[in-house]
Amino acid sequence: MTGSRLDPWIDSYAARAMGMTASEIRALFAVASRPEVVSLAGGMPYVDALPMEAIADTVQRLLLTRGSVALQYGNGQGDQTLREQILEVMAPVGVSAHPDDVVVTAGSQMALDLVTRVFCDPDDVVLVEAPSYVGALGVFRAYQVDVRHVAMDANGLVPEALEEALAACRAEGRRVKFIYTIPSYHNPAGVTQDQSRREQVLRIAQEAGVLVLEDDPYGLLGFDGEVPQAIRAMDSESVVYLGSFSKTIAAGLRVGWAVAPHAVREKLVLAAEAATLCPSNFAQLTVSEYLRTQPWMDQVKAFRELYRERRDALLTGMEQLFPKGTSWTVPTGGFYSWVTLPEGIDATAMLPRAVSQLVAYVPGTGFYVDGQGRDSMRLSYCHPTPERISEGVRRLAGVIESELELIHTFGNAPVHLPPGPATPGPDLA
Hints:
The protein is 42% helix and 14% strand. The chain contains 13 helices and 14 strands. It has helices spanning 26-32, 52-70, 80-90, 107-119, 134-142, 159-171, 195-208, 246-250, 262-276, 281-293, 296-321, 347-356, 386-410; strands at residues 38-39, 102-105, 125-130, 146-153, 156-157, 176-181, 211-215, 239-244, 256-259, 327-328, 336-340, 359-360, 362-363, 376-380. Strands 2-9-8-7-6-3-4-5 form an eight-stranded mixed beta sheet, with helices on both faces. Strands 10-11-14-13 form a four-stranded antiparallel beta sheet. Strands 1-12 form a two-stranded parallel ribbon. Helix 4 (107-119) packs parallel to helix 5 and helix 11 runs parallel beside helix 13 (386-410). The mean pLDDT is 92.
């Protein structure tokens, strides 16, 4: 063993561990969590809106009546009753399945990891949107996957760009293992694929013989009352569908799921058992009891209204205060808006100055593997109150104006940072 003074085991790590590095901005986010900082960075659901007394009663009743089951090992695939209830939760987005096709996981993040583990060897190709969910990029990086970005527009993944990416891989003799997409209320872009676009993406994937991995944690959180139909609703054999209770009940319970074709489901169960033996029975049965006894859809509707009000506060503030040359997406659901800064401003370089002015965001580079996104940022409106959002936008507008003045006076100074996702912590993903 040689190692180093900082890590005597550095020579013993697997090659895939070399990519598991904390980003240069992660320490800043620790500062940004202080109460005086308005954080427009975090993707945390507003759990304070939950009926806490009802949840407390649910947990108490569970422990008193089924405590010996809730605190014991469970089924590696997940609780049967909960899997049946998940079918009801997915019904609004058009997903139908048999309970046996559902695998319960510790959040949809675990499901994403399992699918990647089952399908991908090092250097296999996965196609993702540009930008894409930072947590997914972290998973792909850990499994040494060759991630290739595919362009997006206001309607999500661009079909022509997807066809070009698939053709380029074929020309190289490379096999694409799956297409990873968040079609509804995208994280981080805040856009939604319309039905026509979903049909096109599915058709292209089917013709290429490529699996679609559909991540849908925000599907029920639309602001106009309509629920987009999942891609999985159109094809049960070409799509693996990921869902989660993190955004509609509680992120801390860590309960998500995957719906997969039968043969794929068997592999996912075996991979899940190897990782965790079984998902938490306590968390599963808590969610199950909540779904059984509480008007959960009414709570989802309450979340919709709450997040719509906060979205409006963000959009109004940006419209009134952000300088000319700034643009942003207008989300119709979910948690995020994607902001493109005036020419010359580097969002990553600007972040320390923003934090010093007591406002935080996630720079766009965190959502790419290849260094793109320097002129962009993700703003989240899900957790702060409307008043705090307005104040955060005011502070951020001042920082952007100051950056423009510096550029006008001194020009642009190059910033050299390593490519790859600048991975924040779980509360910011």
